[in-house]
Amino acid sequence: MSKYSVQQQPIETLLSWIKSGEIAIPEIQRPFVWNASKVRDLLDSLHKGYPVGYIITWRNPDIRLKDGTLSAGKRVLIDGQQRITALTAAVVGQAVLNKEYKQNKIKIAYNPQVKDHESAFEVCNNAIERNPIWIDDIAPILNGDTPISKIRRQYLEKNPTVDEDKIEEKINELQAIKNRQIGIIELNPDLEIDTVTEIFIRINQKGVVLSNADFVMSKIAADQQFGGNTLRKMIDYFCHLLNDSSFAKHIESNDTQFFQSPDFVKIKWIAQYTDNLYHPNYIDVLRVAYTYAFQRGRFSDLVALLSGRDFEKRSNTEEIAQQSYEKLRTGLMAFFNETHYKRFLLLIRSAGFIHANLLNSQNSLNIAYAIYLHLCDLKMSEHEIQHWVKKWFVMSLLTGRYSGSSESVIERDIKQIQEKGIQEYFQLIELAELNSGFWEHTLVRDLDSSSNVNAAYLCYLAAQCQNQEKAFLSGSVKVSDLFETRGDEHHFFPKAYLEKHGYKKSEYNQIANFVYTEQQINIRLQDKPPFEYLQQIQQDIEQGKQQYTSIPSLVEWRENLAVHCIPENWQAFRQENYADFLQERRKLMAKKIQQFYDKF
Question: Domain of 31?
Fold first, then answer.
């Protein structure tokens, strides 16, 4: 069975479909990123009869209205938004949104006196406006706002020596652009949502990685009946305000109606929030809202539900579409709730994850937030919520639960939490995945890595932050302080020392060879082997010199070594037993991580 049909339509017909809403163009699916010269080139190609590519649409499945009648689904633009927007700007004369989401008018000028092989179009500027040989804006001619006779008469008044018949012919050629054919590929309405999503992702890539969430965003942005276009604005504007507080001025200037709406009130607070721990993009916002509100994980199911899909009856109804948009709005409002958002991040910080550098899984954060919102709905006590969300978050990091393709795992987790309750379901996970074998072997093996974004290592550092532990060889500065200021990841076995004995980068950069310390201490230690600089430090403390460290006593010094998981037999730390040191320290680090996890 064919997945699509191909047809040719005049540009005038295509634009009439857009005006009438027959083709639903996502309002802010993507800002208009073409520069004005590309718009000019598109018009020139159409003028010369060159092909300009295909527009790809998907006709939404027919939907059964509440009165029982069937309504033909609108065409959703899958590919070709930039060309459509360019035509709307140049032919209809509408302003477009630029990269800063400002309204921008693009005027294309036309010179009817150029030779046939030359380009008759140019982006209008001040010089062109003053030059009588140019018609400075083609839109009134193409959209019919100004009669052709008036255009011709005005041009001849400015250029009295030109051939009147030739000018009339050229202006008629210009007007004929709207009759040029453009190819439209229409995906069949009975295609499975997964198939349409896959087609969307493939044809839209062009060097940019897209996901099924992008298709969801296009879907909701194209909806006006149930307010999807407004929801898309909330998501998009929230993410912009999070990164640039001045963007509120752009919204005020360019989208006054939204700026004055209750929906803007719900998100404007984020512009003044300076916490850099969690920087969700539109996919993250959508993930949390969808997972929380629908108890589902697959974004393709969300597209189907927003299309009104009744999975049991295998049909589409207006009622389900409306309910789905209302449910999505509920999820988004919960995400945007200032109290929820700030309390959740406070919870994550209190677990020791005080800096974005300690987080390597955005999905783990997203699902933890969705679970947090779910537990709030259940009216759990704040203590219980903190306990379960922290424990779930750390578990998901340590096990890499949401790495890779995770939608099926997300869906299973949220459904099981809903059905069994978080306590019973979590106990099942712990029995299966966090047994003694995990803590004593799997976690130790995971720490055998040279990546400083290794999840186990980041949990180890979070444990040090949560425990308020002092930095390596520091009497006052804490590990947590070093994430906010200038701290160094010191090679316990110095890099130069190991390099001199033939060790490779992947060997001396093992995470079990790193300790967080103050920069000045790191500089003083230089490239001495551990047994040497530790002996010197011990003597300094005994003599009260404090040349290398501000730690005042041997007892506190030994405690400092212990909290950094330094094995007690440090006198034996030479390059020939470096591998033994790493293995011993990994075991101690794994125990520390387990103790950290068990505290929640």
Answer: 4-187
